[in-house]
Amino acid sequence: MAMMVTPTIAAVAVSLLQRRGKQFIKESGLAPIRKPKRFLLAVLLAYLIPILLIVQAPFIGTWLGVFPGDFDQFMILNFVSGTDGPVRYLLGQAGLILVAGFLNLIPALGEEIGWRGWLWPKLQPLGQVPALLISGVIWGLWHSPLILLGYNYPFAKDGWGVVMMCGMCIVVGAFFAWLRTLSNSVWPAAFAHGIFNASVGLVSLFMIMGSMLDTTKASILGWSGWILPVVVIVLMVLAGAFRATKSYPQMESNEPSN
Q1: Could you tell me the pTM of the whole model?
Q2: 69 forms bridges with which residues in the sheet?
């Protein structure tokens, strides 16, 4: 959690060096909320999108033979749901994820103020695809100390986990960035980040009991989990969904504040 605040610290430091400290709140998307309807839509999507990203991955991975999916008996899901049954259990999990998402909001905001709040608008002049790639790679490389210790990719060797983390961050970060663009606010992106962290464990419900998972290949962390999201991202790029908006404060004026 202490590490998660470092992107915000860096963004504040750079803003102060640029003599734009007084504009930081607006430029990072913390306030004001200019379009309430879009903001509320983005908050709703911030809850749904991360769960969909995580849940679709086991289906694609199983189809490709890289995820140990149990879509015949759902033994783990039936076991943990007990007498309540899978449907009631999953509804309960949806509620718990919502609560956990709000609890995760503040630490996630520590990252998102830096990544989607401050950095994403700064990359807009480069174009949609460069902005997505650069922001995702930076976010992925930022995880390097933990990834090299075996976090997320315990079976990866020789820094391959860092490469995979950059890929995952490009894919997932694209949707967080879109929420930032849609709402002109960093809050939906931070909420989505919190929901993502809270729901990533859902993948275990679809596994064969006792199986091992190579996250370089399967789940949203692995390449098979990126296929469907990348198709969606490509369509969004073609539709101009990630284009810069004039509502970004830093797009309105590049003059430093006094």
Answers
A1: 0.93
A2: 207
CA proximity to 226, closest of 25, 36, 57: 57
**Residue 29 is assigned to a structural domain of this protein:** no
Q: Which residue has the tokens 């004001």?
A: 32
pLDDT digits (tens, 9 = 90+) for 130-178: 999 999 999 999 999 999 999 999 999 889 999 999 999 999 999 999 9
Number of domains in the chain: 1
The set of residues, in sequence order, having a beta carbon less than 8 Å from that of 39 and lying 6+ positions away, is 33, 183, 184, 185, 187, 188
Is 38 a domain residue? yes
φ, ψ for residue 18 (rounded to 5)?
-85, 0
Q: Does a structural domain hold residue 50?
A: yes
With the C-alpha atoms ordered 234, 174, 38, 52, is the resulting torsion angle positive or negative?
A: positive
Rounded Cα distance, 139 and 134, in Å: 9
Q: Burial of 27 by CB count in 10 Å (0-12 exposed, 13-18 middle, 19+ buried)?
A: buried
| Cβ neighbours for 228, distance < 8 A, ≥ 6 positions apart | 56, 60
Q: Is residue 178 part of a domain?
A: yes
The conformational region for residue 98 under phi > 0 = left, psi -120 to 50 = alpha, else beta, is: alpha
Cis peptide bond upstream of 229, omega within 30? no
Summarised one tens digit per residue, pLDDT across range 180-198 is 999 999 999 999 999 999 9
Q: Give the whole-angstrom CA distance, residue 174 versus residue 182.
A: 12
Print the domain residue range for 98: 34-246
